[in-house]
């Protein structure tokens, strides 16, 4: 699915949009996307209308901060990585959010598969649309930098799509 062939689903509440980014443990990919997307949303003038959250499908890290390497990568790029605390997906997230964006096919399957309101995060990536965001946890620092590049360009595209959807473009 691409953003052109599958636009953002409509908000459940007119004028408000709630989206969540989902990975396995909510300490690397999804918190990086959460922080960047939240900043892109604010830069687009949508902070009052769009709520960005993140969670993991597993509960191993609930309440903890993001991975030190993820936080360092974000901090080096000028983002605030200090507020994140890992959360676990609960069934109500599927009903409460307008859109859930999975980082990879495994996360997507754990969300019940692709649907109007559940998609891969990179389905909005203008480069390599529809691919997975690789998990950098077991690799080196360059993996976190690669994830940040994907997250930044996808978040920019998502913020633009949200501006159009909410009539603020």
Describe it for me?
Helix 2 (68-76) crosses helix 5. The model is unreliable at 1-5 (pLDDT under 50). The chain is α/β, with parallel strands linked by helices and 169 residues long. It has a single domain (17-161), classed as Response regulator (Rossmann fold, 3-Layer(aba) Sandwich). The chain has helices at residues 29-43, 68-76, 91-96, 105-110, 141-165, and strands spanning 17-23, 50-56, 99-102, 118-120. The relative contact order is 0.23. The protein has five helices and four strands; from the N terminus they run E-H-E-H-H-E-H-E-H. Helix 4 links the parallel strand 3 (99-102) and strand 4. The chain has a four-stranded parallel β-sheet.
Per CATH, the architecture is 3-Layer(aba) Sandwich
What's the SSE pattern?
A: EHEHHEHEH
Assign the structural class, choosing from mainly alpha, mainly beta, alpha/beta, alpha+beta, or little secondary structure.
Answer: alpha/beta
Distance between the termini: 23 Å
Q: What is the overall number of helices?
A: 5
Question: Helical residue percent?
Answer: 25-40%
Instruction: Tell me the number of structural domains.
Output: 1
Question: What name does CATH use for the topology?
Answer: Rossmann fold
What is the radius of gyration computed over CA atoms, rounded to a whole number of angstroms? Answer: 14 Å
């Amino acid at each position: 699915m691409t953003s052109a062939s599958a636009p953002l689903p409509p908000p459940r509440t007119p004028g408000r949009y709630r989206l969540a980014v989902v990975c396995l443990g909510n300490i690397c990919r999804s918190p990086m996307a959460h922080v960047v997307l939240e900043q892109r949303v604010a830069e687009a003038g949508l902070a009052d209308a769009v709520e960005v959250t993140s969670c993991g499908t597993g509960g191993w890290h609930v309440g903890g901060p993001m991975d030190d390497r993820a936080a360092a990568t974000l901090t080096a790029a000028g983002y605030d990585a200090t507020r994140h605390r890992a959360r676990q997906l609960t069934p109500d997230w599927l009903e409460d959010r307008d859109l859930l964006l999975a980082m990879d096919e495994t996360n997507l399957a754990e969300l019940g598969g692709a649907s109007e309101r559940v998609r891969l995060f990179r389905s909005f990536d203008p480069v390599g649309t529809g691919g997975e965001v690789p998990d950098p946890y077991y690799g080196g620092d360059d993996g976190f930098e690669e994830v940040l590049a994907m997250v930044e360009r996808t978040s920019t595209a998502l913020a633009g799509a949200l501006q159009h959807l909410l009539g603020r473009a």
